[in-house]
Amino acid sequence: MPESVPQEEKPILLKLLNLRMRLSVLKRDRTTHLDINQLEPLRQETAELLQALTDVRHGVLLDDKQKSNRCDDLVDEVCQMISLCFLSLGKIRESPAVYSQVISISHCFERLDEFGIYAEEFLEPYSNMLKDIKNVLTIDEKNEALTKPVMQILWHKFHQCETIYKKLLATIHEVSPELLPIRNKLLRIRRQLLTVACRSDFGSKDILPLQEELNDIDASRVDGKFLDEDGGTPAGQAVVTGLLDQVHQFAYDLVIVTTSDFSPALQSLRERLVEIKNHLERLALTQKWTMRQTDLFSYQHQLHDIVKLRYTGKEEDVDPTAAAAVAPVTSEVDQDRIGKFLDAEGNAPDGQTVVNFLLHKCYRMILELLNDSVPVGEALTPIYNQLTSVKQCLLAVKKTGAPCTPEELYPYQMKLASIENVRKDGKFYDDRGDIPEGQALCVNTLEECYQLMEELRQTDDDASSA
Predict the structure, then answer these.
(1) Name one GO cellular component term (predicted).
(2) Are 202 and 121 part of one and the same domain?
């Protein structure tokens, strides 16, 4: 929970609340496409408020030692909304758009850090994302594209991600090659448990075979150690043994979920997370046609609210309005409860794993949806979608290898002609007369479609003359 807001920051807090409200109205309005001219004044206002907050804090906006307050939460929400708006406009290679990606990666890394151990190939995509983001931030900082407070926030969030990534990578290097097959088998079982946990309904029979595999791995130890072929004790025992214990606990925890002993408080959170996951899955299916990147903010916000229900041992943990009641605070902090969801009596019930797995799954899905963004403005997205659909159809026809008659190509030709007719002076315009982002991508896709049509015509001519 955030600290209380100092008196000198309260005027800024009120302005941030007002700004967030106006951004919420803008992102909810689906009657018209997002417009950079609407967004730019709000972005500028955000930069000014961040500068004011920096001045109040004596030049340091963010610091790892500094406790966050409500102002920090609002700054994060405002920056996320502006970032998602930039993504919706197709400006995916600009620092404002990068903010939401950094936040999503940090949420994923926090979940990864909880589980602790991963294979190198699993972390590789995250490494590539961090490299891309660092490149964008470095260029924008050099060009002074953003104010110093905004860049400070972006770099602060980025370095948090980088720190967790390096920590996860370090555990990989602790395991000797001889133990990698066992580690990889345990990681596979953990992935299967995650898949089971993310179902809306599962039974103990789904977990039993995985528990048997774990017991077989456990039984292969000699005096509590995993040995190599020569009877030696390879390095990485603590990592692999810790992973075995962790996966054993996960499996036990998931069995609890299938019984009547499962906590109603955790069941409530589980149902909320399953609902969010189902919504995100539907978005993934219809993303190309209906999703606006700003739609993701509400899901991020809901997940953030659930994470905040975890017990931290602070007085601020008491929240009578929370969906899952939190423990009464005593003078002693129970370290075993830190980071866990508590029931109405203040206990940390078994079954936490299902909630943690669902959180991990939802954050991963949001990151994947963000990474699927293309540099095409919202106004141009329908045309781009039509072009990619025509291209996919033509590629499918070409793949069959069969001759394609002019009559069979006619529908594709007509569709491309209708798209071509929308262009003026070689450009696509929106309903305001502006030129949206993504011109080059749309024109290139259109030309690829024409090229495929020509190849299919040539195939038909060759077949006719044979």
Answers:
(1) nucleus
(2) no
**323-to-10, 269, 270, 330, 344 alpha-carbon distances in Å:** 28, 8, 11, 21, 10
Per-state percent for the chain, helix, strand, coil, to nearest 5: 70, 0, 30
CA–CA distance, 160 with 99 (Å, rounded to integer): 13
* pLDDT for the residue numbered 325: 43
**Do residues 294 and 369 make contact, with C-beta atoms less than 8 angstroms apart?**
no
- Residue matched to tokens 């159809």: 393
CA 3 from centroid of its chain's CA atoms: 27
**pLDDT interval class at 322 (50, 70, 90):** very low
Domain match, 3 and 124 both: yes
Burial class from Cβ neighbours inside 10 Å (0-12, 13-18, 19+) for residue 97 reads buried
Beta strands in 303-382 (DSSP E): none
- pLDDT tier at 329 (50, 70, 90 boundaries)? very low
Question: Which helix (H) or strand (E) segment is 371 a member of?
Answer: helix 352-371
Residue at a domain's end among 213, 231, 257: 257
| pLDDT tens-digit series, residues 228-266 | 888 899 999 999 999 999 999 999 999 999 999 999 999
What ranges in 198-321 are assigned the alpha helix state H? Answer: 208-219, 237-257, 264-290, 296-307
Q: What is the pLDDT of residues 144-179, one digit of tens each?
A: 888 888 888 889 989 989 998 998 888 888 889 999
Do residues 170 and 132 make contact, with C-beta atoms less than 8 angstroms apart?
no
Please answer whether residues 98 and 154 qualify as being in contact, where contact means their C-beta atoms are separated by less than 8 angstroms: yes
Nearest Cα to Cα of residue 263 among 347, 374, 360:
347
Q: Give, in order, the Cα–Cα distances in Å from 279 to each of 98, 283, 291, 362.
A: 24, 6, 12, 10
52 and 2 assigned to the same domain? yes
What is the mean pLDDT of the segment spanning 194-205? 93
The set of residues, in sequence order, having a beta carbon less than 8 Å from that of 217 and lying 6+ positions away, is 182, 185, 186, 244
Same domain, 60 and 208: no
The span from the CA of 321 to the CA of 318, in Å, is: 9
Rounded CA-CA distance 48/52 in Å is: 6
Q: Which amino acid is at 411?
A: P
Domain interval for residue 194? 177-257
